[in-house]
Amino acid sequence: MAPKNSSFKIILGSSSMARRKILADMGYEFTVMTADIDEKSIRKENAEELVVALAEAKCIWQDIVLLSHRNHPMKARTNPRNCSSHSVNYCRHNLFGYILPTSIGIEVAVYQGIIREKPSSKEEARHFIKSYSGGQATVVGSVVVTNLTKGIRKGAWERSEVYFHDIPDEVIDSLIEEGIILNVAGGLMLEHPLTLPFVDTLIGTADSVMGLPRSLTEKLIEEAL
């Protein structure tokens, strides 16, 4: 079966294995390109604004790098953070029909109104997971899709809620020692085989919690094209 995007290319701006699997299961072929930005320098008061701002910042970084490589190879060595929006627009008009949507999933966890990004240590990860035990966490994620040929960017956010049974200390210890949850917003990895049995109720979709909501991604790709 031919991939959905046989007439255009997709760059996934994330190294997340979960996001790669979701996008592949949707029938798309893609390459991965992570953005070199300082996420901590981008701060917003609420989770919805933060995830959209982070996704847009990564998209802009990738736009500049990709366009520089295609049109001005020597300029590709410059720091994308110092490039102007004018140079990006100039390059767009010289792509001659080259369609390149960029799909990025960004998420944060919210617990009692406090935004949680990736745990900074094992101790913080343990604190996060123990707080979910017998309780609830909200996951807010965003997707931003850019069509470089047309200069169109579409983005939106989605919210899901996860309610947990009590999580035994030995399960939390195993999750911490494995280490993978240190790379996940809020230390919350719904699909992990150690976590999944303790999920009581999910309001929303599993793919949204995993970082790339299918229906929203599909909708934004269609709108950008």
Unreliable stretches: 72-99
Taken as a percent bin, the fraction of beta residues is: 15-25%
* Helix/strand/pairing category: alpha/beta
Q: Helix count, per DSSP?
A: 7
Question: What letter string, H or E per element, gives the SSE order?
Answer: EHEHHEEHEEHEHH
Radius of gyration: 19 Å
What is the global morphology?
Answer: globular
Q: Mean of residue pLDDT?
A: 82
InterPro entries: ITPase-like_fam, Maf-like
Pfam families: Maf (PF02545)
Protein name: Maf-like protein DDB_G0281937
Keywords: Hydrolase
Structure notes:
This is Maf-like protein DDB_G0281937. Keywords: Hydrolase. InterPro entries: ITPase-like_fam, Maf-like. By secondary structure, the chain is α/β, with parallel strands linked by helices. The chain has helices at 17-25, 47-71, 85-92, 122-132, 169-178, 206-209, 214-224; strands at 11-12, 31-32, 101-111, 114-116, 136-147, 152-164, 199-203. Strands 1, 2, 3, 4, 5, 6 and 7 form a seven-stranded mixed β-sheet that branches. The protein is globular.
For the structure shown, list the relevant keywords:
single chain; 225 residues; alpha/beta; 7-stranded mixed beta sheet; 7 helices; 35% helix; globular
Give a summary of the structure in a few sentences:
The protein is α/β, with parallel strands linked by helices and 225 residues long. It contains 7 helices and 7 strands, in the order βαβααββαββαβαα.
What order do the helices and strands come in, and which of them pair?
Elements: E1 11-12, H1 17-25, E2 31-32, H2 47-71, H3 85-92, E3 101-111, E4 114-116, H4 122-132, E5 136-147, E6 152-164, H5 169-178, E7 199-203, H6 206-209, H7 214-224
Parallel strand pairs: 1-2, 1-3
Antiparallel strand pairs: 3-4, 3-5, 5-6, 6-7
Helix pairs in contact: 2-3, 4-5
